[in-house]
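Entry 14. Two folds queued back to back today. First construct below, sequence then structure tokens.
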Amino acid sequence: MQSTFVINLARVAIIIAVLALWEVLSRTGIVNPRLLPSASDTFATLGDLLQRAAVQKDLMVTATEVLAAFALAVPFGAVIGFLVAENRYFAEVAKPLLFFAFSIPKSIFLPMFILVFGVGFAQKVGFGFFSTIFIVIMSTTTAVESVKVEHLTVARSYGATPWQTAFRVYLPSMLPVLLEALRISMIFNLTGVILAEMYASRDGIGHQIASWGENFQMKQLLAGVVMVAAIAMTFNELVRWVETRCSHWRT
């Protein structure tokens, strides 16, 4: 308990030190405050932005797109990953192709999504799905392969049905790995949607951030970056908390 407190205290101290350095660099003129507004001004701007109806609407648009892409990518990727891990022939054929596809920067495909889907909801959800599904497939494959063979053998020797094997052997063993994969997948998902909004969109918080940057509105730009970072970190810590609660499931 004491070590956890010390670690948390150290993390808070680092955050405060970074914010203090940011404030000093801007206030003293070491860095041009027009290029790097102070931390206090940025957070004041953030508070003002969050009260604006247009920004709230854009946040809701982005949240809807992110959740839709995530809800599609996770089950599809999990099923494909499970099939790859369970079928040796399929794994030999598909794994090299998956690693090849994963290594390609997804941003180069964004113009194709715009050409196919146009500029709208489908384009952003589709690109978020595309940015996420490969990491889900690979993580699921790794999670399935981490299940101990002897546990499966015991379950099947006692006559466990496929559903019982899935929920009483696979799921408890895979859950910690899958939760970690979900955290990473959401980062890819959020990045994909924000990038699609910044590249070609009429709404969404990514569109707003791109607009602030183009118009050299540095306070709003930095406030938008802080906003997106806070959302990502909140989701990350929430899943991490669930992950610690479920760590005892690992068999």
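Second construct, same run, same settings:
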Amino acid sequence: MQWEAITWQRMAEQLAGHLDDPDNAPEQGSWQRVGIDGAPAAETGVLAGRLADALRLRGRPSLVVAADGFLRPASLRFEFGREDVDSYLGGWYDTAALWREVFGPTDPGGTGRVLPDLWDPVTDRATRSPYVELPPGGVLLVHGPLLLGHWFPFDLSVHIRLSAGALARRTEESARWTLPAFARYEADTDPASAADAVVRADDPRHPAWTGVGSG
């Protein structure tokens, strides 16, 4: 891969420009859907927020949705223990709810009525958040871990990559049991090849990326 040093702000501006390009603009009455994939230590929400701001400056409405808002209840996540790697990879996130409440409404002919979150992992209760109307021509920004292994219909996908060493250093002690899960995700899904753009963020102060079109 060819890496280009860049700031997070400039990256967001270039991604917004790509989405706003007439060659990539959504058809009338449709939406664009962006996935920003990365382990929790990669802080995918930071880039999602910057991209939302850059789109707003271009007059493009957007909605940021965190995958962590669609965790399944603790009784299901911890059915085989609190540190089960297989469960984390395949059973922690309510992908059916994401399809139904987030991607379905932004399919062609959809309503644009998106549920921004469903479950609060802290209280282990439904969030009861109201639906948000994303107008046609808007951009849905979904961020979080393990996104590129579910065939989600992203028009643009970004993978924030951390080396194994950086991931271990930046992952909280209580969550280090997930490291084998991300190693398997890298081996089985190869998100760097699946994504349209890859960001190298071992040092978050000095990111580098491939630009759009690496996948």
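Quick look at the second one. The mean pLDDT is 96. DSSP finds eight helices and eleven strands in the chain.
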